[in-house]
Amino acid sequence: MESPRTLEEYIALVVETIEEADDFLACIDDADPEENWERYRMPMERILAGLRQLLADLKEGLCKPPMSAVPPFFEDIDGLAADVPIRSLLREVARVYREGFLKQP
């Protein structure tokens, strides 16, 4: 995964992350209960709601990274175990939100 360098790339990353979060929630529905993926349902639903709000705010020009605060869903991201497949995408969305875009080489 390449880090976004523009607002357009960041919006694309947020869209991709929303799609992956939806897919992950669908996988939770189909998972074997013994695998205990259900424990991620509530945090993922909050994260997904936060991502959708972030996307709307970005598209409406209400926010632009870097923001002075952490995204409202960051605590949920931080609480996810390393075995959650989309954790790196989520962390990158949160990193850009807080720190902004990487400098062009």
Layout of helices and strands:
Layout: H1 7-30, H2 41-60, H3 74-78, H4 87-99
Helix pairs in contact: 1-2, 1-4
Brief characterization of the structure:
This protein has helices at residues 7-30, 41-60, 74-78, 87-99.
**What is the helix tally?**
4
Strand content: under 5%
Shape: elongated
Number of individual domains: 1
User: What is the succession of H and E elements?
Assistant: HHHH
How many strands in all? Answer: 0
Helix content: 55-70%
Radius of gyration from the CA trace?
14 Å
> Which segments are poorly predicted (pLDDT under 50) over 5 or more consecutive residues?
none
Structural class: mainly alpha
Provide mean pLDDT, rounded: 88
Taking the sheet with the most strands, its summary is: none
| C-alpha termini separation | 17 Å
Report on the architecture of this protein:
- With 105 residues, this protein is mainly α.
- The chain has one domain (7-99).
- The chain is built from 4 helices and no strands.
- α1 (7-30) packs antiparallel against α2 and α1 runs antiparallel to α4 (87-99).
- The mean pLDDT is 88.
Key features of this structure:
single chain; 105 residues; mainly alpha
